[in-house]
Amino acid sequence: MTITNNTKPVVLVLGSTGQVGKLIVEALSQTTDVQIRVTSRKLEQVEKLQSQGKDAVYLDLDDPRTFAEALAGVNRIFLLTGYTVDMLAQSKTLVDAAVKAGVEHIVHLGIFGEWDCTDPHFVWHQLIERYIETSGIAWTHLHPNVFMENLLGILPVKDNAVTMFWGKHRVGWVALKDVAEVAAKVLREGSKKHNVKNYWMSTEVLNGDEIAEILSDVLGKQITCYYKQPEDLQALMLSSEIPVEPNYAKGGVEFMRQVIDGRMGYIGTVRDDASFVTGKPSTTFKQWVVENRDRFEQLTVDS
What is the C-alpha separation between 63 and 65, in angstroms, rounded? Predict the structure, then answer.
């Protein structure tokens, strides 16, 4: 662990080698306002990062014994947990450790859910948020809607087609880079400006046909949308093709059901706080597809 520079706030980024965390680290690196501390639960990854001159620490969310050293001298935390029910215990124990370590501000990546929603995996995030709020540490909650990057991951374009599991309902979409830029701005500026704030990120609402139309236009080939049932997603998530923890998979399927029957109709709304935080327009879906054209073209070749 690198000795901290006391003139700068130390920001601990969990999941710093993953999709969101990596983008946050990149965004934070654009200025010298903070000292960035990255984490990994793999010792070899920590050693590699340290050899590159980074302030890297070993932190395993399933082992609270790793928390004290990782949190030493930390002022602000970006809290991101894995997609399992274990997020409850992981977050509770990390928040408790943050209180002991004197952490001043937690920025938590949550979900786009109303306070009384009943989707299990959304509820887990809300329980974590309430626990953070009662900890005495300053907090900021980020509420992204459906990630555009899902179309390169769990819902990929395959055989020139995209599949949706919530019927023809429109849902809100947001680019991960916009989420990362909001997180980085909050982590740089700290709790004086962002304490007790909820930032909602839903840039544009589109259904499957509209998604396919934009993809077709940008990629120069006909992309079709297939509509399947939530139960089809359950089979996919529990298959070896996309292995997901069973309880989390159950929550994901319930999400689809509630979008279809209207209980989560608010998912199909635009609520773009990102532009207020960053001071610039959020990424439209068409802009995002253009930026990721090469990745989509590779997907269609591979399939």
Answer: 5
Distance CA 24, CA 282 (A): 16
For residue 228, how far is the Cα from the chain centroid?
Answer: 25
Q: Distance between CA 67 and CA 76 in Å, rounded?
A: 14
Count of helices and strands (H, E) across the chain: 13, 13
Q: How far apart are CA 116 and CA 126, in angstroms?
A: 9
pLDDT digits (tens, 9 = 90+) for 225-261: 999 999 888 887 777 666 678 888 899 999 999 999 9
Distance between CA atoms of residues 294 and 303, nearest Å:
14
151-176 pLDDT per residue, tens: 998 888 888 999 999 999 999 999 99
Mean pLDDT of 31-53: 94
CB 167 within 8 A of CB 224: no
Contacts of 159 (CB under 8 A, 6+ apart): 303
In this prediction, residue 117 carries a pLDDT of: 96
Alpha-carbon dihedral of residues 80, 82, 86, 90, nearest 10 degrees?
-30
| Cα–Cα distance list, 16 to 45, 70, 133, 293, 294 (Å) | 11, 13, 24, 25, 24
* Count of Cβ atoms closer than 10 Å to residue 256 Cβ: 23
Is the per-residue pLDDT at 4 higher than 70?
A: no
Give this prediction's pTM. 0.94
215-227 per-position pLDDT tens digit: 999 999 999 999 9
User: Rounded to whole angstroms, what are the CA distances from 128 to 97, 115, 136, 253?
Assistant: 14, 13, 14, 21
Q: Which two tokens stand for residue 204?
A: 């544009």
Q: How would you list the strands of the sheet with 105-109, edge to edge?
A: 55-58, 35-40, 10-13, 76-79, 105-109, 138-144, 197-202, 271-272
Pairing mode of beta strands 171-174, 55-58:
unpaired
Mean pLDDT of 87-92: 97
Greatest pairwise CA separation for the chain in angstroms: 56
